[in-house]
Design brief:
two-stranded antiparallel ribbon
Length: 89
């Protein structure tokens, strides 16, 4: 594990990680999201901005998971069709 320092909304955080570059990229994405929210919602404090960002990101994760499940179902149907075509040949 390596120690890496990231900055999120002007606050520095020291984290331990197996993948420093990915951790930095994730922190940068979070920082960008929080900066966008801070511009839009000037009156929210740090903790409320974090909560709003978490809620938005979790909603995106749910949507991506739902899309992934739908794609897996379509892939399974295609695999079944291909298997039928191959067995009929």
């Amino acid at each position: 594990m390596q120690s890496v320092e990231v900055e999120i909304l002007g606050r520095k955080h020291r984290l331990r990680t197996d993948n420093p570059e990915q951790t930095k990229a994730v922190a940068e994405a979070i920082d960008n999201r929080l900066n966008e929210l801070q511009v839009r919602y000037e009156m929210l404090d740090y903790s409320r901005l974090l909560l709003l960002a978490i809620l938005q990101m979790q909603n995106e994760i749910f949507e991506l998971d739902k899309n992934n499940q739908n794609l897996n179902k379509e892939l399974e149907k295609l695999n079944q069709m291909i298997g039928k075509i191959i067995s009929d040949s």
